[in-house]
Every structure is written in structure tokens, then in C-alpha cells.
């Protein structure tokens, strides 16, 4: 579905991604771990073409995204991204937040996208809140709406950037539960997260970014129980044990 | 009471004069101030609508990144710099006396009212374009990113995400500019248009009494004070909201 080949990214003179190579299969869930500043957000933003990579290649459905003839807006409609800070549109109610993309980017008819949006809202447990504005929702609810907004575009793959980091600990669960459901339904996802237990439970594979290098990519259980790289061992030893 | 106080009362506050100035007296060639004031009001309304439209157009052009619009972008920058820096009254003179004197066919044959409206619109569009621009800039970049992330194109992002939020942010400063515009409609009297100011002036010079000025001032206050209060309320409301957000 998505292949990253030797991706390099620099900001000014500083290299933030040092040759990242990773492949994401359809229906696969990969969790991306790494300390703060290791480059997780940058990697996700590069895949969604919000940042331009300096070297290497990103192949999406057999096509290089670096090709100049690529329509960037079109690509973004197939690759959803959800941010740590939700970034909902504050002037639109929940329903309009979700339907804006399908209606104005995909040009689909209003009645159709609205009924889909209502169904989505039901699925994320916010069926009764469609008329509310973002500032009337809790952080967890806002983040679920942000996920629904991305899903409404029916993307082929969903990128999630620490979507629970800005949340009150009591609200983290509801968002992770939603992601687990999506994983069970076969949504292809690349998830940057600090939630170890979640990664272990939900991810098919787990990857560790260390200072811009992808040091280990392994099936979830293997990653946590018998990591092969010293950086992984070090990283796992420094995070508090969940459970 | 000091002798000056008596004079002030007589010259500025005499109820008889005030009333006569207010309702006018056609037999003596006195225009009614209230009628003049209607001119101020409708000029203000017409100009306000035009200013909202032109100001927005100028701001959007100035902030566009499309290369085709580069010449227009340059023009709009020059335009706003130029007209924000020139006193309104000079623009009024230039347009109101200059254009009719230039022998440009129908363009030179409009009424002073038309030239007055054009002058005010030209000047205030420059102010309001800057207000809009600040509003557009005030929309957080994460909103742009979120819009692009769902594949909205630049135009759609502007129209459905940026402008609705920008307009909300600029309502208080816009109202401020409109209060100025309301007052500046008084300047059209320099083109011989009989607005409230001019009617008061005529009354004053023929009767050697200035109660008409007081009447005209009161009428302007009647218009601007509610607007000032509304602006304050909106500013306060936004401030409360922001504070609530911070805590
Ligand atoms: N726009 C930018 N300009 C300059 N440097 C940047 C920019 N964005 C990110 N960086 C730098 O790139 C590095 C990686 O940042 P990134 O946000 O990708 O890390 P992260 O792994 O997502 O961290 P966190 O867990 O804190 O979100 C950091 O050192 C950061 O300072
Ligand atoms: Mg990050």
C-alpha cells in the first residue's frame, strides 16, 4: 500500500529523518514508537505530503509521490491524517466538520455524505452530538470526531499522530478503543504513539524511530518480548511498564 | 453663572434654534438637519456594503499565492499603502472636483453624491482590506493544515475554513472602521452635498447660532454610540472566551 524507501528529511541543515525504509501492507496496523523529537510526526507529515522529503522515495499504490505530475490534493484524499491537537474546524458543527471534505473536496452530494456522517457518528458513540460545536465537546470526543472526519474521506490508509497525547488520561481509553475497532475492521493504519500496551495489543508490527533512524521493525510480540536491537532494549527499559 | 456660560447656552444649546435647525425652514432656504442626516445614513450604508466587498477582494488578492495574480497582488499592495496614507478629504477633493473637471464623458457628469461615495469607498476599502488581512492571518496554521489534509484545494480552504473564521475575528475592528466611516460621511459636505453637517452650517451662518451643530452632533452620536457599545461587547465576549480557553 505504502512503501517508504530511504526517506531523508532535513530542516535547515539538520537531518531529521535518516533513510527510513518501511512498507505498509493493506489492512495492516503498524505502530511507530520513539522518543520525543525522534521524527515520528515528521515521517507522517512527509507521507501525507504536508512536508517534502529531500531524498528517497514514497510509493503509494505503485506510484511515486515525488513525481511532479502528482496532484497533491488528490493524494491527500486517499491518505487520511489525524493530529495530536485534533484541529477540528471551530466554526463548523460536528456534522459539518465531517462532511466538509467529502462535500467540498470530493464533490459528493450533501444528503449522501450527511447520512454517512451520521452513521460514522453513531459508530464513534456520538450519534446525538451532530449539532454541537467542537468547543462543546470533551477532548476525547473531539479527537473521535477528528478521526471520523478523516474516515469520512474513505481513505486507503490512516495516519495517526499521537492522537491521545493531548488527552486527559481518563479520556485516552475511548479513543484507543475506537482505533482498536478500526483495526478489527481492517483499516490500514500507521500510528505514532506512546501507548505501549495499545501497540502490543493492536499493532501487527511495531517500529522504533531513534533520532530519525528506523532501528527496528518487528511483529508486535517479538518487538516487546525479544527486541533484537540495543536501541529497542534501551527504549523499552526506559518506558514505565504498563499493565 | 459666568458670562461665557450664558453665551454657550445661547449659541449652542438654544432649544428654539435647535428645533428650527432640525426641521428646517424652506421659506428661508434652510434645509432640515434631519433630512441631511438621512443623506449621511444612506451614504454610509451604500459605502459600507461596497467597502465590505472591495476590501475583501483586495485582501484575498493580496494574500493569494497564485503566480498569475502577481501583478494584481502588487497593485493591491500599492493601493492599500497609498489610500491608507492619504487624508480622506484630499481624496474627496481629487475625485469630487478633479474628475468632473477632466472632461471624461459620462464619468465626469455624475452628481457630487456619486463622487463622494466613490471617494469614501476607495479610502475605506484600503482600511478594511488590511483588517481582513489581519483576520486571515489570525486563523491558525493548524486550520490550514487540517483543511489541506482532507484534500481541500486552496480556494475551498479559503472559502470554507479560513474566511468564516477570519470574518468572525475581524467583526470588532470592522465595526470600528465603520464608526469612522459614519463620521466621515460628514466630509461630503465639502462637495456641497447638504448632509446634516452642511445643513447645520447653513443654519449657523444665516442665524448666527450654532445650535444646529449640537443637533447634528447628537444625531451622529445616536448612530455611533450603539455601534461603539456593540463593538465593546463583542470584544469583551471574545476576551472571555479566550480566557476560558486558557484556564
Ligand atoms: N518545521 C520544522 N522546522 C524545523 N525543525 C523541525 C520542524 N518540525 C520538526 N522539526 C524538528 O524535527 C525533529 C523531529 O520532530 P518530530 O516532531 O517529527 O518529532 P516527534 O517524534 O513527533 O516528537 P514528539 O513525540 O515530541 O511529537 C525535532 O528535532 C524537531 O525539532
Ligand atoms: Mg510528534
UniProtKB/TrEMBL annotation, chain A:
Pfam families: ABC_tran. Residues 2-236 form the ABC transporter domain. InterPro entries: AAA+_ATPase, ABC_ATPase_HisP-typ, ABC_transporter-like_ATP-bd, ABC_transporter-like_CS, MetN_ABC_transporter-like, P-loop_NTPase. Its main location: membrane. SUPFAM superfamilies: P-loop containing nucleoside triphosphate hydrolases. The keyword Nucleotide-binding applies. GO terms for molecular function: ABC-type amino acid transporter activity; ATP binding; ATP hydrolysis activity. Keywords: Amino-acid transport, ATP-binding, Cell membrane, Membrane, Nucleotide-binding, Transport. GO terms for cellular component: plasma membrane. Signal peptide: none annotated. It is found in: Cell membrane. It is a peripheral membrane protein. Belongs to the ABC transporter superfamily. PANTHER family: AMINO ACID IMPORT ATP-BINDING PROTEIN, GLUTAMATE_ASPARTATE IMPORT ATP-BINDING PROTEIN GLTL. This is Unannotated protein. It comes from freshwater metagenome. The lineage of its organism: unclassified sequences, metagenomes, ecological metagenomes.
Automatic annotation (TrEMBL), chain B:
InterPro entries: AA_ABC_transptr_permease_3TM (IPR010065), ArtM/GltK/GlnP/TcyL/YhdX-like (IPR043429), MetI-like (IPR000515), MetI-like_sf (IPR035906). It is a multi-pass membrane protein. It is found in: Cell membrane. Residues 37-231 form the ABC transmembrane type-1 domain. Keywords: Amino-acid transport, Cell membrane, Membrane, Transmembrane, Transmembrane helix, Transport. GO terms for molecular function: transmembrane transporter activity. The chain crosses the membrane at residues 41-61, 82-99, 210-231. One of its GO terms (biological process) is amino acid transport. SUPFAM superfamilies: MetI-like. One of its GO terms (cellular component) is ATP-binding cassette (ABC) transporter complex. PANTHER family: GLUTAMINE TRANSPORT SYSTEM PERMEASE PROTEIN GLNP, MEMBRANE COMPONENT OF AMINO ACID ABC TRANSPORTER. Belongs to the binding-protein-dependent transport system permease family. HisMQ subfamily. This is Unannotated protein. The lineage of its organism: unclassified sequences, metagenomes, ecological metagenomes.
Amino acid at each position: 500500500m505504502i512503501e517508504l524507501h530511504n526517506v531523508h528529511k532535513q530542516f535547515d541543515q539538520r537531518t531529521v529523518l535518516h533513510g527510513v525504509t518501511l512498507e505498509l501492507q493493506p489492512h495492516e496496523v503498524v505502530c511507530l514508537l520513539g522518543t520525543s523529537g525522534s521524527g515520528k510526526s515528521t515521517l507522517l507529515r512527509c507521507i501525507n505530503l504536508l512536508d517534502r522529503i529531500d531524498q528517497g522515495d514514497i510509493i503509494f499504490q505503485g506510484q511515486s509521490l515525488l513525481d511532479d505530475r502528482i496532484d497533491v490534493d488528490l493524494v491527500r484524499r486517499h491518505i487520511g491524517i489525524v493530529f495530536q491537537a485534533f484541529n477540528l474546524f471551530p466554526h463548523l458543527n460536528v456534522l459539518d466538520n465531517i462532511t466538509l471534505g467529502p462535500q467540498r473536496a470530493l464533490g459528493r452530494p450533501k444528503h449522501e455524505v450527511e447520512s454517512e456522517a451520521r452513521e460514522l457518528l453513531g459508530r464513534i458513540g456520538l450519534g446525538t452530538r451532530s449539532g454541537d460545536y467542537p468547543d462543546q465537546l470533551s477532548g476525547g470526543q473531539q479527537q473521535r470526531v477528528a478521526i471520523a472526519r478523516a474516515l469520512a474521506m474513505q481513505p486507503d490508509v490512516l495516519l495517526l499522530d499521537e492522537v491521545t497525547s493531548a488527552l486527559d488520561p481518563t479520556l485516552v481509553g475511548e479513543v484507543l478503543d475506537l482505533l482498536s475497532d478500526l483495526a478489527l475492521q481492517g483499516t490500514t493504519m500507521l500510528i505514532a504513539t506512546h501507548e505501549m500496551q495499545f501497540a502490543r495489543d493492536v499493532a501487527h508490527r511495531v517500529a522504533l524511530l531513534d533520532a530519525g533512524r528506523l532501528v527496528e521493525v518487528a511483529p508486535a510480540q517479538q518487538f516487546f518480548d525479544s527486541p533484537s536491537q540495543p536501541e529497542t532494549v534501551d527504549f523499552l527499559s526506559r518506558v514505565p511498564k504498563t499493565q | 453663572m459666568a458670562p461665557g456660560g450664558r453665551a454657550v447656552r445661547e449659541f449652542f444649546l438654544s432649544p428654539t434654534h435647535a428645533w428650527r435647525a432640525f426641521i428646517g425652514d424652506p421659506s428661508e432656504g434652510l434645509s432640515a438637519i434631519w433630512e441631511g442626516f438621512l443623506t449621511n445614513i444612506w451614504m454610509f450604508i451604500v459605502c459600507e456594503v461596497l467597502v465590505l466587498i472591495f476590501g475583501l477582494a483586495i485582501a484575498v488578492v493580496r494574500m493569494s499565492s497564485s503566480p498569475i495574480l502577481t501583478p494584481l497582488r502588487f497593485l493591491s499592495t500599492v493601493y492599500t499603502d497609498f489610500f491608507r496614507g492619504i487624508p480622506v478629504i484630499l481624496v474627496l477633493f481629487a475625485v469630487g472636483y478633479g474628475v468632473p473637471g477632466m472632461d471624461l464623458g459620462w464619468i465626469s457628469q455624475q452628481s457630487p453624491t456619486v463622487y463622494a461615495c466613490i471617494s469614501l469607498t476607495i479610502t475605506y476599502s484600503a482600511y478594511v482590506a488590511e483588517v481582513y488581512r489581519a483576520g486571515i492571518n489570525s486563523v491558525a496554521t493548524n486550520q490550514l493544515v487540517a483543511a489541506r489534509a482532507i484534500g481541500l484545494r486552496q480556494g475551498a480552504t479559503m472559502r470554507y475554513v479560513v474566511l468564516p473564521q477570519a470574518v468572525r475575528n475581524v467583526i470588532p475592528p470592522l465595526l470600528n472602521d465603520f464608526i469612522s466611516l459614519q463620521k466621515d460621511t460628514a466630509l461630503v459636505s465639502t462637495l456641497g452635498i447638504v448632509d446634516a453637517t452642511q445643513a447645520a452650517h447653513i443654519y449657523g451662518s444665516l442665524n448666527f447660532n450654532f445650535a444646529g451643530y449640537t443637533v447634528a452632533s447628537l444625531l451622529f452620536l445616536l448612530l455611533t454610540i450603539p455601534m461603539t457599545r456593540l463593538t465593546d461587547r463583542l470584544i469583551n465576549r471574545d476576551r472571555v472566551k479566550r480566557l476560558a480557553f486558557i484556564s
